Amino acid sequence: MSSAAGNRVHLEVLDNLSAIAARAADLFVCRAREASASDHFTVALSGGSTPKALHNLLAAPPYRDQVDWSRVEFYWGDDRTVAPDDPESNFRMARETLLDKLPIRETQIHRIHTELAPTTAAALYEDELRQEFQLSQGQLPRLDLIYLGMGPDGHTASLFPHTAALGVTDRLVTANEVPQLSTTRITLTAPVLNNAATIAFLVAGADKAGALAAVLEGPRDPDTYPSQRIAPTDGDLYWLVDRAAATKLTRT
User: Fold this and answer.
1) Mean local confidence (pLDDT), 2-10
2) Are 110 and 77 within 8 A, CB to CB?
3) CA atoms of 153 and 41, how far apart (whole Å)
4) Where are the domains of the chain?
5) Residue 219, burial from CB neighbour count under 10 angstroms (0-12, 13-18, 19+)
6) What is the largest CA-CA distance in the chain?
7) Which fold has domain 2-230?
8) What b-and-e string marks burial along 58-96, b requiring 16 or more CB atoms within 10 Å of the CB?
9) 3-state DSSP call for residue 105?
């Protein structure tokens, strides 16, 4: 692992997806234990294929037995505007691979109501965050741990290149029209992501190599590579990447 002095950024190049999942699960257990002094441990899950391996580990021994699941509150960094039982739903994936296998209550699950109109779903999710975190006007929620992925285009959550959500700083959640996918997504905004105590990017696959090198070592261009916008204001940022994704990095 290498760490850039002063900014709490940690880059870890791991052998493969299984190693990423194990490291991410270790981080979950560690951060959950560190949060033991508070009533809750708040985590935002990510969509896509990479987190499935993480979920499978957390849902089974030995990881499952190392967490007090009664204290964990589950949120999402983003989701697609589909029904919650749609195969494309980030919520459905998490429920099937993790949540249904854990001893938790429905009240611990804070999903985005993606079956509603996008602007309505975004407003409702922002209201829920404000209520659950007891926020005053202008305050941001501080999640204990946020998992993020990164696409081959450098997007993260549903912050896609050159989309309107990149400039949103006065809301916690926004409906983001994504012309390149002919769809609208619901996403946490960059200020919310950057207020987390810990953020962990899980990046696997050779198709991510170009974007990863651009994000970590290229010129600053956060409109083209939105993952560059992720820089915790007071927290740790982990890049957990496999060797295939790291092939174009010059410093590891």
Assistant:
1) 58
2) no
3) 31
4) 2-230
5) exposed
6) 46
7) Rossmann fold (3.40.50)
8) bbeeebbeebebebbbbbbbbbbbbeeeeeebbbbbbbe
9) coil
Contact 184, 217 (CB under 8 A): no
Q: What pTM was estimated for this model as a whole?
A: 0.96
pLDDT at 118 over 80: yes
Cα–Cα distance, 85 to 99 (Å, whole number): 14
- Predicted confidence (pLDDT) per residue in 170-211, tens digit: 999 999 999 999 999 999 999 999 999 999 999 999 999 999
The string of DSSP letters for 14-29 reads: ESSHHHHHHHHHHHHH
What is the rounded distance in angstroms from the CA atom of residue 154 to the CA atom of residue 104?
Answer: 34
User: What tokens were used for 85?
Assistant: 């039982």
Counting Cα atoms < 13 Å in the Cβ hemisphere of 23 gives: 23
Cβ(245)–Cβ(209) below 8 Å: yes
Cis ω for the linkage preceding 62 (within 30 of 0): yes
Tokens coding 139: 């305050």
Q: Are strands 183-188 and 173-178 parallel, antiparallel or unpaired?
A: antiparallel
Read off the amino acid at residue 198: T
In the chain, which ranges are continuous DSSP H helix?
17-34, 50-58, 90-97, 118-132, 190-194, 209-217
